[in-house]
Amino acid sequence: DGADRPPPAGRGVHAPGRAAIPARQLRTDRWWVPRTATLVGLLAFIGYSTWRAFAGSHYYAAPYVSPFYSPCLAENCERMRGGADWGLFGSWWRLSPALIVLIFPLGFRLTCYYYRKAYYRAFWASPPACAVAEPHAGYTGETRFPLILQNVHRYFFYVAIPVASVLTYDVALGFRDPRGQWGHMGLGSLVLLVNVALIWAYTLSCHSCRHLVGGRLRHFSRHPVRYRLWSWVSRLNARHMLLAWLSLASVGIADLYVYLLAAGAFSDPRFF
Ligand code: FES
């Protein structure tokens, strides 16, 4: 574990000009618990989502489609048979259709301000926690390649909006029965509904969203609508970490639910 190794003498936190603190860190609480929980949570999601993304099967159990596979952009997407979405990738695309789509939510989360903090700490011990010295000899932050690319986050945010909109459309389709008649509601309809609500809450709580609606203004008093939007987004933004985890869990659960239905593990309980 990198956090257990001291930084090299004369480098990092031992560089000349830094306060000479002999102890490796002065925290007396269990600072490693959040870091370990983050590590386990992220690894579990990475393992599960990689398996499901490459599987290319069991992602459509009419009328539900897994959020990992939506929007269906390839002709080999199972839901394309129902005429939904766009066949932008023709028959030449033989891999799992999820691989085309997942780049966008993956990029959005990978460059997210919260996840950056989470995985810098969990995987790189940079730093392992607040007020715990990192073991690295140098620190350039996000000023150089490749981490300077984290600045593209706002563009992933722009793409996250249409992706969340398509998932919302999927939720609407989940209220039709497998024959296409409206008025159906199964447990799957609710699972997808809760998931999309959490995805929207996470997306709208994004720091880039907050800047987009309320940034670069001199006077809020002259922009009451933007001020109101900024107030709402700010309230969500204060819960960004919580929403990041809840939406990550819900998207995995929604996919797992569709997978189990498609694999015939059980039938969708239907309310009407
Ligand atoms: Fe987390 Fe934008 S800062 S999604």
Automatic annotation (TrEMBL):
Residues spanning the membrane: 32-51, 95-115, 155-175, 181-202, 242-266
Keyword Transcription regulation set for record: no
Stretches the record annotates as Disordered: 1-15
UniProt KW keywords: Membrane, Transmembrane, Transmembrane helix
Signal peptide: none
Name of the featured protein: Integral membrane protein
Organism: Peterkaempfera bronchialis
